[in-house]
UniProtKB/TrEMBL annotation, chain A:
Source organism superkingdom: Bacteria
Protein name in the entry: ABC transporter ATP-binding protein
Protein family per UniProt: Belongs to the ABC transporter superfamily.
PROSITE patterns linked: ABC_TRANSPORTER_2 (PS50893)
Lineage of producing organism: Bacteria, Bacillati, Actinomycetota, Actinomycetes, Propionibacteriales
All residue ranges annotated as the ABC transporter domain in the record: 22-246
Entries under CDD domains matching the protein: ABC_KpsT_Wzt
Organism: Nocardioides islandensis
GO molecular-function term, one example from the UniProt record: ATP hydrolysis activity
Protein keywords: ATP-binding, Nucleotide-binding, Transport
TrEMBL record, chain B:
Organism of derivation: Nocardioides islandensis
Assigned keywords, A-Z: Membrane, Transmembrane, Transmembrane helix, Transport
Protein name: ABC transporter permease
One GO BP: lipopolysaccharide transport
Family stated for the protein in its record: Belongs to the ABC-2 integral membrane protein family.
TM segment ranges: 64-84, 96-115, 135-161, 168-192, 277-295
Keyword Lipid metabolism among record annotations: no
Amino acid sequence: MTDSIVVENVSKRFTKQYHRTLKQVSVAMMRRQQVTNTFLALDDVSFRVQQGEAIGLMGLNGSGKSTLLKVVQGVMAPDAGSVRTRGRIAGLIATGAGFHPQLTGRENIYLNAAILGMSEAETNRKFDAITAFADIDDFLDSPVGYYSSGMYARLGFAIAIHVDADIFLADEALSVGDKPFKVKCMKKLQEIKDSGVTIFYVSHAAGSVRKICDRVLVLEKGVLGFDGEVEAGIKYVKYDDESEGTDEELGSEI
Amino acid sequence: MTDLLEPQRPRDAASRAAALADVPLVSPAPTGGIRGILQHRYLLKLLVKREVTARYTGSFLGMLWSYITPLTQFLMYIFIFTLLMGRGGNIEHFAIHVFASIMVVGLFTETVAAGTRSIVRNSALLQKSAMPREMFPFASLLVSIYHLWPEFVILGIALFFTGWAPDLTALVAGVLGYGIIMVFALALAVALSVSQVFLRDTGNIVAVVNNFIRFGVPMMYPYSIVAERFRGHTDLYLANPIADAVLLVQRCFWVPTTSDQKATIAESMPDHLFTRGFVALAGAFVLLVIAQRIFNRFENKMPERL
Ligand SMILES: Nc1ncnc2c1ncn2[C@@H]1O[C@H](COP(=O)(O)OP(=O)(O)OP(=O)(O)O)[C@@H](O)[C@H]1O
Ligand SMILES: [Mg+2]
């Protein structure tokens, strides 16, 4: 088997407050405050992913999951350590972000597909499949600004999923879709997995992680706390006991 | 990407693994610089198209506005300079002098202003995928150039009626003048777009400086006034590459419309105009290389500040 993602000793340091005003800076200087303003969002994280593996990335809010995904995608550069990937990456990080509200659904499909690395010919070829999957045919020529947040998310997901990628990154991609759409997406994710694509899937829903993933990584305040079996990982984040019931109740099994 | 011959993508795990066997493990970070932009020509085209169409969406007359606005502007100059202030009395076709200069200065100020904000404004796109981020200030330049065409049409009509017959020197001057402005504006847009990410005041500073530029170049007044007032000390004024570019553009469009070109050049053009122009162009290219270096130096820290 070949390595698909190799992450070695990656750290990312963030600043808590970037844009301080002249007033804040001068007050702080007068009081001679020396508060530390930075923290490690990723702290010496290392792991390897094989081609075709499906990884579930779990952890509490603010533990650094989205940050790790952005580093793997190449959108953010790590401060220390290295990330290497093999093949084409498609990401669904922050659903629907990057749509231009004044442009129509059609124009946004072309723009977003291009951003994800598709050529014009490729987009033309897949256009019907994308709109069929998003199921927004009637609204293709209205500005995306008038879409409901669910439609927004569906369109984003439909585009990302039609990129012929070797690595697929999804960050809480399905949190606003309705139930039928979620079921459809799970089926599609399974299909993608079966075609040998590496999947990196961030989710708080134990149910969907169980369904798709072969391995779980857990981040705790930027440190990789667990790397191994799906069940053990879900137990590790303590989503196991109450998860089934609440997942069902909250309708967030995905 | 740039795969012209699109390979058949694998449908099952085994063929994908086989296809990936000789693909190297590489950093997912985007290739920047000119190479990165050239690899993403199609995306660049879409970005420019988006900006161009977004400007007039929802308006009934649409693109027609891009002709109406400069036309009324031009008629206003004729009215003010020829009829009201009587400046047209001693300077031939002063409205063309003003309009041609305003076009090239506008290209500069618009590119720098839009380019400065380009990265911050497109933060949502930037965070979606790894792409060369220099693309955004570069797209700002292309959008500003695109918006120049309607003004060229208006100028062309005016030139037709004044019997514009340029010689080769005039044409070279025009190309050189526009070249200086484009390279110089792109350099500033690239450098300032990073600056805007870290210090949001940059855009405000740019707006103030742009206001000064309008008076620091011989646009609303002829160069002959400068030559007269600062006799012997014009080098400082002409050290401004934008002033050189404006004069070169006037040499191209305005000078050939005057009845005695030799006299116009003697009175309203500085000495060594072309030498100054080529020096300015070289300087602009050096600045562009420096701007690219600055951009590379800071772009890794950029995504988290958006
Ligand atoms: N651009 C940024 N600048 C500064 N701090 C940031 C930035 N992005 C994220 N952080 C901080 O880094 C930490 C990790 O954030 P991240 O978004 O990776 O968490 P997460 O695990 O995805 O959480 P969630 O489950 O809520 O999505 C948080 O404390 C967050 O405030
Ligand atoms: Mg997150």
